[in-house]
Amino acid sequence: QVQLVESGGGLVQAGGSLRLSCAASGFTFSSYYMRWYRQAPGKEREFVALIGSAGGSTNYAESVKGRFTISRDNAKNTVYLQMNSLKADDAAVYYCYALLGTRAYWGQGTQVTVSS
Questions:
Q1: Could you tell me which of 105, 94, 109 has the C-alpha nearest to residue 61?
Q2: Helix, coil or strand: residue 85
Q3: R_g of the chain, CA atoms, integer Å
Q4: CA 69 from chain center: how many Å?
Q5: Residue 102: which residues within 8 A CB-CB, separation 6 or more?
């Protein structure tokens, strides 16, 4: 079955960096776009970044452009989110997402906490 398992979250000071990972299994990872979303307390889940199946195309939410970088390693079935210059507003649970045909799959999420 399809599984998406995020890791790498934690507590970081404002201005610091974290790298999130999402290990995928149960489908042909290299054939699909992958996305990161996040959800802060009391807010709706929002798009953060996406990457094409081969890694050549990326797109970002305006709020993270220039600070976050999405990448993937198809040999490891893993997608990453490098987060630099973290701000208090970046604190959220970060989710990995895959749309396989008409079915959407989410990971369990990883918490990112930013201290000021």
A1: 94
A2: coil
A3: 13
A4: 9
A5: none
Task: Tell me the C-alpha distance between 75 and 110, whole Å.
Answer: 23
Q: In terms of Cα–Cα distance, which of 98, 102, 110, 99 is closest to 38?
A: 110
* Helix, strand, or coil (residue 92): strand
Q: How far apart are CA 19 and CA 84, in angstroms?
A: 9
Q: What number of other Cβ atoms are within 10 A of residue 4's Cβ?
A: 21
Provide the pLDDT confidence category of residue 116 given band limits of 50, 70 and 90.
Answer: confident
Residue 30 to residue 82: CA distance in whole angstroms: 20
Both tokens assigned to 63: 């709020």
Percentage of residues in the chain having pLDDT higher than 90:
98
| Residues with Cβ within 8 Å of residue 101, at least 6 apart in sequence | none
